[in-house]
Amino acid sequence: MATLTDPAFQLLLARLFSDAERTQREFHEERRALLAEGFQQGSPPYAAAARKAHLAITPETGELLYLLARLREARTIVEFGTSFGVSTLHLAAALRDNGGGRLIATETEPTKAEAARRTLAEAGVDDLVEILLGDARETLRAKRPRPVDLLFLDGPGHLYVDVLKLLEPDLSPTAVIVADNAEARGYRTYLETHDHYVSVSFGTRVEVTLLSD
Ligand SMILES: C[S@@+](CC[C@H](N)C(=O)[O-])C[C@H]1O[C@@H](n2cnc3c(N)ncnc32)[C@H](O)[C@@H]1O
After folding, report:
1. Helices and strands: H and E segment counts in the chain
2. Predicted TM-score (pTM) above 0.90
3. What's 203's DSSP letter?
4. Ligand 1 pocket, 152 CB below 6 A?
5. Cα dihedral 158, 58, 70, 170 in deg (nearest 10)
6. What is the pLDDT confidence band of residue 36, given thresholds at 50, 70 and 90?
7. Stretch 140-154: mean pLDDT
8. Among 169, 154, 170, which residue's Cα sits nearest to residue 108?
9. Phi, psi (5° rounding) for residue 133?
């Protein structure tokens, strides 16, 4: 049986998606109140509220990540923005079902990284994942897995181009790049103006990109 469709794995995902929905709702309410009080994005109370929110992918995006990683027979995956590990679980499940591999995940928030590690252990896929704690632009510079078969971008969108540029020399010729919240300023423009990329948008949020020949 595939890891993704294993009933215990599905139960764990259902729990995480339900937690994600709740924390997303709470974060939106808290954010509205904080902004009304004059606290800016990045202020300590705003950051404290964001720390509790999963800000996770949708179940459909999780399935898409799993399928793409399987189709590309990915063995080396990099994730920018792990949070509580919802996307990480889908990618790790694909690695397991591809026969093994390595997922380098990145997260700045220690409490989120710790929670993700616990969840990955609970799912039995922690042997496939290393979570680098800190700014991905630094941690990925120090630890560069190659060749990268799949790159998942799901951190702050204004950093997508920086992270992609950093990893471009390490991308496998058959690599697939997936970005959530791809409407982030500058990202789609960067892809459009570099003709070695072939890119397709799924709705407003998700962008799937391949390297052209
Ligand atoms: C949208 S959430 C990721 C959601 C996750 N992929 C999931 O599906 O559950 C973005 C995460 O990126 C983290 N982050 C912010 N800046 C970062 C950076 N410079 N490097 C790595 N992670 C970062 C945030 O703490 C946040 O947890």
Report:
1. 8, 7
2. yes
3. T
4. no
5. 10
6. very high
7. 95
8. 154
9. -95, 125
Atom of ligand 1 nearest to the CA of 79: 6
Cβ(53)–Cβ(22) below 8 Å: no
Distance 136 CA to ligand 1 centre (A): 9
The verdict on the CB of residue 106 being under 6 Å from ligand 1 is yes
Ligand 1 midpoint to CA 155 (Å)? 4
Atom of ligand 1 nearest to the CA of 181: 1
Is the CB of residue 120 less than 8 Å from the CB of residue 148? no
Report the candidate in 18, 4, 78, 81 with the shortest Cα–Cα distance to residue 50: 81
Q: Which of 91, 111, 154, 160 to mutate to test the pocket of ligand 1 (most atoms within 8 A of CB)?
A: 154
Q: Using CB atoms within 10 A of its CB, is residue 129 exposed (0-12), middle (13-18) or buried (19+)?
A: buried
The pLDDT tens digits of the residues spanning 53-68 come to: 999 999 999 999 999 9
Residue nearest to atom 11 of ligand 1 (CA): 81
